[in-house]
Specification:
- The relative contact order is 0.11.
- By secondary structure, the chain is mostly helical.
Length: about 150
């Protein structure tokens, strides 16, 4: 239990301790360098401009891809119409069946080549957009590192 007779508490010593030590320094706000709001806004503006540029690059790539898809569809449709017009079921024999098989093989190979070209076009559009964003991210990291150097004491 607490016994005030044995407790070594001297009010005068405690008062002297607080008078001799300036505790306000411990609670003072640390000095921080000023934040450059203009630099932050400029970086964000660059980020937004980069996103717009990336979207434009992707949109251009996808427009090209769509145009190629329409071209492939129209060519395939024209070829199919030609095959239907040329097909005569009354003249079906081994030779014409072999010829029809060869035409089907060529059509399949052409369709496969067209699909490959379209996939490569989509991949290129995505790669172009990625390159724009990736370059901006690298620049942004460098800008943040430069700003952080100003805060080191």
């Amino acid at each position: 239990m607490f016994d005030p007779k044995t407790f070594p508490f001297d009010v005068e010593q405690l008062t002297a301790f607080f008078k001799s030590n300036d505790f306000t320094k411990a609670f003072a706000a640390p000095k921080m360098p000023e934040i450059d709001a203009d630099a932050i806004l400029a970086a964000q503006k660059k980020n937004m401009e980069t996103l717009v540029a990336a979207n434009k690059a992707a949109a251009a790539g996808y427009q090209d891809l769509f145009a190629k898809q329409v071209e492939v569809f129209e060519a395939t449709l024209a070829e199919a119409q030609k095959q239907i017009a040329d097909f005569d079921p009354t003249k079906l024999d081994a030779e014409s069946a072999t010829a029809q098989g060869e035409v089907a093989k060529v059509a399949f190979e052409k369709a496969l080549a067209n699909m490959t070209a379209l996939a490569e076009g989509a991949q290129k559009a995505n790669a172009d957009a990625y390159e724009v964003v990736s370059a901006r991210i690298q620049d942004s990291v460098a800008e943040l590192q430069d700003m952080a150097k100003k805060f080191t004491v």
